[in-house]
Amino acid sequence: MRNIGHGEFVCLLGPSGCGKSTLLGALAGRIKPDAGIVSVDREPVKNPNPERGIVFQHHTLFPWKNARDNVAFGLKMRGVKRGQRRLGAEKMLGLVGLNGFAGRYPSQLSGGMQQRVEIARVLVNQPRLLPHGRALRGARRSDPAADAGIAARYLGAIPQNNLFVTHDIDEALILADRIIVMQAQPGRIREEITVPFERPRMTEIIASGEFMRLKQHCLQLLHSDRRGDTLPRLSPLGL
User: Of 16, 110, 119, 183, which residue has the fewest beta carbons closer than 10 angstroms?
Assistant: First the structure.
């Protein structure tokens, strides 16, 4: 059994094919596990639910709606009054650093800004769990460390339980309280790593000796997996 504590930011780190996206699908209620139970607050996940707000890596915004209306869409479906929808949407846009962009349409926003609108659209429904996959990737594709720093700046302020999936070690170390390193085919947990850095975190920690030590350790775990070495202490994946 693996648990995500209240307000904890957990990162699932592993190579392609280890089951990261499959786990997100199971948490979303779109994929039924072959074995075991996925539960949130001790309630088994059976169907999609707004309380488990999935943030998709690829853009799913309505191109004909501005940022405010995209964020407010879920509230509208729940019957929330227009004035309350507007206030709620603008509050969430402010949380992800998009004050002043509420009236912009997706085509008028950069890729990274569109991803932040995606996050705000999920957060406005006040989910208990926020699973997401590299949600802010694309803000500066040439600089992974800057991408991770942007993610830390906005996602670090979000109080929900977070499960973040990635194969980028810098992202994992900057964002996570705990990293679960996986092996591929079949997906198994290789090791759990507690990240010791205090919050708020800045990208300057990348130059620290402890950061480099942890990064090297993660690289060794992932590299030995690719070589097909014998992996000790493996356990079935579960939450």
Answer: 16
